[in-house]
Design a protein that fits this description.
transcription; five-stranded parallel sheet; about 220 residues; DNA-binding; 10 helices; Rossmann fold; 2 domains; alpha/beta; about 15% strand
Length: about 220
């Protein structure tokens, strides 16, 4: 059973999401919160698999809520998915950097909402290659900040190559084609790189690749 926590200051939206999710045999909404402070308390109480968190809330916003969850070792299993009305904006980027597994627009169709919860619960990032490219297009033109990213010494040459390709928006299948390896091997390289760099998911791995200087905008 996938346990879900809803954190949003709009009761009507919470009720709608609960109604959509509770009818699924493998999903259970364990609690609801109206702001980030209440959400953090309920996350610690219920330890959900997935927390759907509004990005703009009173008391504690979604970015800080995400950061506190990601920084707490006791909450390592909780996957935060950001809810936004605005599509991919600067706030979503900040939430991904804080540790969110991905994001959803609130007017998502019911089937996609259910699918997204299952994807997040599996530990996968809710960032398709097209979204990764949008992240790069929108934000990688910002100046790189040398020294802010982690060291890459722990990565093998093949892992570095796979990460660089992922940071250019390539899927595992495309990485496999480019590196002339199997998709499973490509996935293994990416997963090992995430472990070594302490990246929670592919979204953070892409960000780390740019902040460390492994990939520069001209590589796109």
């Amino acid at each position: 059973m996938i346990r879900v926590l809803l954190v949003d200051d709009q009761p009507l939206l919470r009720s709608g999401f609960r109604a959509l999710l509770d009818v699924e045999g493998d999903i259970e909404v364990v609690a609801e919160a109206g702001d980030g402070a209440e959400g953090l308390a309920l996350v610690r109480e219920h330890l959900p698999d997935v927390a759907l968190v509004d990005i703009r809330m009173p008391v504690i916003d979604g970015i800080e809520t995400t950061r506190r969850i990601a920084d707490d070792p006791a909450l390592a299993r909780v996957r935060v998915v950001i809810l936004t009305n605005y599509g991919f904006d600067e706030y979503v980027f900040d939430a991904l950097r804080a540790g969110a597994a991905g994001f959803l627009v609130k007017d998502i169709v019911p089937e996609d909402l259910v699918h997204a919860v299952r994807v997040a619960a599996r530990g996968d990032a809710l960032l398709a290659p097209s979204i990764t490219r949008k992240l790069i297009d929108r934000y990688v033109t910002q100046p790189l900040r040398p020294g802010t990213g982690p060291g890459l010494e722990a990565l093998t040459n093949r892992e570095r190559e796979a990460v660089a390709l992922a940071a250019q928006g390539l899927s595992n299948d495309q990485i496999a084609d480019r590196m002339v390896i199997s998709p499973m091997t490509a996935k293994t390289h990416i997963n090992r790189a995430m472990t070594k760099l302490h990246a929670r998911d592919r979204a953070q791995l892409v960000i780390l690749a740019y902040e460390s200087g492994l990939v520069a905008p001209r590589d796109r």
